[in-house]
């Protein structure tokens, strides 16, 4: 089921200048819980109430629903295609769909292979999708998520990871040479507590995995900038398991190898704040969401 706001809670969509740290509020709602901004030219694409919406990034208008037919309720894993015409969307039925941004019929990409599919990345040439695949046991309990790729037109998936350490947030670098992820795997050989995710990268075939961050916080959703020189990500407090909602988190930026970590903004959010690629095309701004409570 799509997420909803708690009594007295608000949803606020912001645009952040990465150089100056200045933020601009572009929309606020006490009714709809919007999540996960993508950036299309000067518009933001967000999800809320199981739908996708288009919102002017300058705050000059309200979210307008995109008329996509045949798409089950959408979750917060959606990524724009490089062609600027389509969007790939994960839905509550556990499948990934392609749909026209202007509205129209959705086409299912993934097959009934026993996985729940959560999209995070599209290759720069638009040919390949990177997603998180989850197997559930007969009781409905999720097993550790692993990473997969699949042709953007559908077809067999390729499994990149296969172990008991959860992986998530798979996103391609702008040159297609790397897939950036967050993982609980101890790639540096240091044992970690469960849930202690750090940023890493691997080649698109799953080889050459490298750990990028190593700190006490729990780091999720690395988003490479359009020029590939920076990563933006969401950093949760130490001891956080997964990427839950309603936590004090920090949006941080660092170099492509984890160097030069810098705090951009601290906010109340987490899940939904910045799950998907959120950079403006010019690489100077990020879009994010926070969810302040009444107090």
Automatic annotation (TrEMBL):
Similarity field: Belongs to the TolB family.
Protein name stated in the entry: PD40 domain-containing protein
Record InterPro entries: 6-blade_b-propeller_TolB-like (IPR011042), WD40 (IPR011659)
Entry's transmembrane regions: none
A Pfam family: PD40
Gene3D superfamilies named in the record: TolB, C-terminal domain
């Amino acid at each position: 089921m799509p997420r909803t706001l708690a009594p007295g809670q608000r949803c606020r969509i912001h645009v952040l200048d990465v150089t100056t740290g200045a933020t601009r509020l572009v929309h606020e709602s006490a009714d709809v819980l919007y999540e996960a901004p993508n950036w299309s030219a000067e518009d933001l694409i967000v999800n809320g109430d199981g739908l996708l919406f288009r919102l002017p990034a300058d705050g000059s208008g309200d979210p307008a629903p995109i008329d996509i037919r045949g798409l089950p309720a959408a979750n917060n894993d959606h990524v724009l295609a490089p062609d600027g015409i389509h969007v790939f969307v994960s839905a509550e039925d556990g499948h990934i769909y392609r749909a026209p941004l202007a509205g129209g019929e959705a086409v299912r990409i993934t097959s009934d292979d026993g996985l729940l599919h959560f999209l995070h990345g599209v290759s720069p040439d638009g040919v390949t999708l990177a997603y998180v695949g989850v197997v559930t046991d007969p009781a409905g309990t999720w097993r550790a998520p692993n990473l997969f790729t699949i042709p953007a037109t559908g077809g067999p998936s390729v499994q990149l990871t296969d172990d008991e350490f959860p992986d998530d947030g798979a996103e391609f670098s702008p040159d297609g040479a790397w897939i950036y992820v967050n993982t609980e795997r101890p790639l540096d050989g240091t044992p970690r507590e469960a849930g202690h995710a750090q940023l890493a990268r691997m080649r698109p075939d799953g080889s050459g995995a490298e750990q990028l961050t190593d700190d006490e916080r729990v780091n999720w959703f690395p988003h490479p900038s359009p020029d590939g020189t920076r990563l933006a990500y969401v950093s949760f407090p130490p001891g956080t398991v997964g990427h839950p909602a309603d936590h004090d988190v920090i949006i941080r930026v660092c170099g492509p190898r984890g160097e030069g970590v810098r705090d951009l903004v601290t906010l109340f959010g987490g899940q939904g704040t910045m799950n998907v690629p959120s950079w403006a095309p010019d690489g100077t701004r990020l879009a994010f969401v926070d969810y302040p409570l009444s107090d």
